[in-house]
Write a structure and sequence with these properties.
2 copies of one chain form a homodimer. With 153 residues, chain A is mainly alpha-helical. Chain A is built from 6 helices and 2 strands. The first copy, chain A, is 63% helix and 7% strand. Chain A has a two-stranded antiparallel ribbon. Chain A starts with 12 loop residues before the first helix and ends in an 8-residue tail after the last helix. The interface between A and B is large, with 62 and 62 residues. The first copy, chain A, binds a DNA duplex (23 and 23 nucleotides) through helix 4. Chains A, B: This is MarR family transcriptional regulator.
Chain lengths: 153, 153
DNA sequence: TATTGTTATACTCTATAACTATA
DNA sequence: TATAGTTATAGAGTATAACAATA
């Protein structure tokens, strides 16, 4: 007879990560859905364009971890809300540069401080060192999960 | 004119968490979907019952972060696959104790070692202290996200 | 032929409410 | 009235494939 296995879901890394991510990101999502009327993918694209205006859809897809289908649909909805406009690339008529409109920039300027405020509340009990180590650990896991073995720290 | 905002999605905690969780948990999910033919919620319930046999659906819901609807449906599919059986509570005929069948226990015994092996590969580059700190940080965030202010570490 | 982006389709997940049978 | 669990339904998210326009 084999020895009983000692395994608890609650101490299992993937479950812990998913649960924490859902609760943390879910709280913020409620904030910008209820307070600013935008969805999660809309927020991701808005955040990216606020930081790097004029990128193309393909780059947006890489930056936001949204596939090209979702980017296309999210851009359509952001455009219909008046937050984003497209400027066709004159050298490659398939693609377009994406820009925030004035209204989009204004929304970005209102959301970011609230998001940062929310983040710092979330991190309130954590030291700067803990925060740095958390990000380091997450980066390590991300790289491992994607099959990249990073150079040692 | 206001100063330009320095904000990058990639350094923003909720995004980082979600992205890491998706990549990490996604890799494992492929493992037990392809190798063992069970879905994520099925795995969560199997893992819980393997550890705490005979709990009721309501407790399963709390343990697995799945709502009662999903628990009910997942139990139905696990039952139809022959991994789980129900024993009505004689004192409360609304509820039932959930048990792994022999086939369910056998599956659990095969999956857990693979899952732990996969986890340790994922944690390979991380020291014991880093691992402990990561879990501590995740617990802290989870408690904060759920609005509980835990006692200081 | 390959690439950018869009449209279509189907499948899963999530959230809610309505329902049953018990208590 | 409240609770354990089920069924029904609609909305959102996800994955894939087919497609149009352009390179």
């Amino acid at each position: 007879m084999s020895a009983p296995i000692d395994f608890s879901l609650d101490n299992f890394l993937p479950y812990k990560l998913v649960k924490t991510a859902e609760h943390v990101a879910g709280g913020l999502a409620r904030l910008y859905e209820e307070e600013f009327g935008i969805t999660r993918p809309e927020w991701r694209i808005l955040a990216t364009l606020g930081n790097r205006d004029g990128v193309k859809a393909k780059e947006l897809s890489a930056e936001t971890s949204l596939d090209k289908v979702r980017v296309s649909r999210t851009l359509a909805s952001l455009e219909s809300k008046g937050y984003v406009c497209r400027v066709r690339d004159q050298n490659d008529h398939r693609a377009a540069y994406l820009h925030l409109t004035l209204k989009g920039k204004e929304l970005y300027q209102r959301i970011v401080p609230r998001a940062l405020e929310w983040e710092s509340e979330m991190l309130a009990g954590m030291s700067a060192a803990q925060y740095r180590d958390l990000f380091k650990a997450l980066d390590l896991l991300l790289a491992k999960a994607d099959g990249v073995t990073p150079s040692p720290l």
